[in-house]
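Chain X:
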Amino acid sequence: MRPKSIAVIIVAAGKGERASLDGSIDPKQYRPVGGKPVLARTVQAFLDLPFVTSVTAVIHADHADRYAALGFSNERLLAPVIGGTSRQASVLEGLKALAPQRPDLVLIQDAARPFAPPQVIGDVVEALERFEGALPTLRVIDTIKRSLDGRQVAATEDREQLFAAQTPQGFRFGQIFSAHMRASTIRRQFTDDAEIAEWAGLRVAMVAGHVDSFKITRPEDFARAERIFGGDIAMETRVGTGFDVHPFEPGDGVWLGGVKIPHDKKLKGHSDADVALHALTDAILGAIGEGDIGVHFPPSDMQWRGMASTVFLKHAGKLVNEAGGRIVNLDVTIVCEAPRIAVHVPAMREVIGAALGIATFRIAVKATTSEQLGFTGREEGIVAMASASVEMPRGD
């Protein structure tokens, strides 16, 4: 269950001078990628997520007209806040502006990271159920050398212990606000919000980041961003299908699409027998060539007995993310005579979207009957069929 309120602060108060070495007069956050300003893409990425309560951009005092020109009209996008003289000071200004609302959680995002995948954002939010802070990271793959003078190697670092930090970095609002207020009273500049949380004694978790969620810093980064947006980085669309069936047994309700629906029976299975989520999970796994649900969660393994099927769905989504892909859309059809499904469809879409970190407009849930024919017509069980469309890097 996600918290009731999740606020997002997008830090856009810098001048972006390093990305303007090619002669551009526009700060990097207002320069276009694929015909749309970077900041506009970053803001829209969070507005597309149904679990985000509000989005606040922290901007430079000289950029009010540029920001207004983005032309946003969304009740969840709050008035921009003028930032400070450093990133740390700008984040504090954003936190102060949110203080009257007291959101449960806050996500702090660099404006110059327009490609943060929904799955990564969702993973950060989920980690905050157990930790006070969380951030996406990438394992460092290059050998890292330490030097005291920039000319001679002094030591080689153990890269197995090194991770590159990304955003959004998420926190429980009251705790990070308090930590930032304390940090503002000392003569030290912290490199990111996670470091402030660590300094304040908060537990900070790491979740898997994504290679495309890089920070646009120099002119050449715009060429990379254009390739990502344009889809000419050897991406391809793959389609997977899933099919599952479970019989009824005596009970008090069925789990379908992550929602428990009152009924005089339940579905029989090793886990919670959520036939809709099983079909969806198989469809996603099929699209990325990763077998089926039984390969990853064998019914012979007792640890999965009674397990919520959202666990299986999240695992499939994580595999897509780790492979550098993204889920484009999902479609599931549930076949049964009873219980009635239609009234529960919005809740199912919300659960599926939250589990995978994707917007609900990418999810279709439909229900039909078999006109009283066959075992579903005799109300002996439920069938679900699903398809998944996934964009993945080409393997060749």
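Chain Y:
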Amino acid sequence: MDQQEFLEQKVFVDFKNLNENYENDKIHQFSEQDFESVLQKVAYFGIGVYTIEAFLNGVSYGVSNHESHHKKATDANWYKKAFLNFKKGESGLVYSATYKVSNKLLAR
């Protein structure tokens, strides 16, 4: 199983992908409520999150990454804080992220 398959089968399975161009770029976008649940699943599996990007009306609203928070990608504190900051700033955002699933997790 590769990383994309793992994410789609174990993490994204219960949530609606709002990205209309999914076939072209393979990036999943989620509503605020769904993304919060995605982050909970990511934390449960110990998956790394490199970046979070928020969109408002299809236009990038902001990007946050683990390096700017001086945290490891697998540290849930950074992405929970980044998500909370986006939520406070604007309602109705759509979210995407880049992930890293460890080889150990893929081998299960």
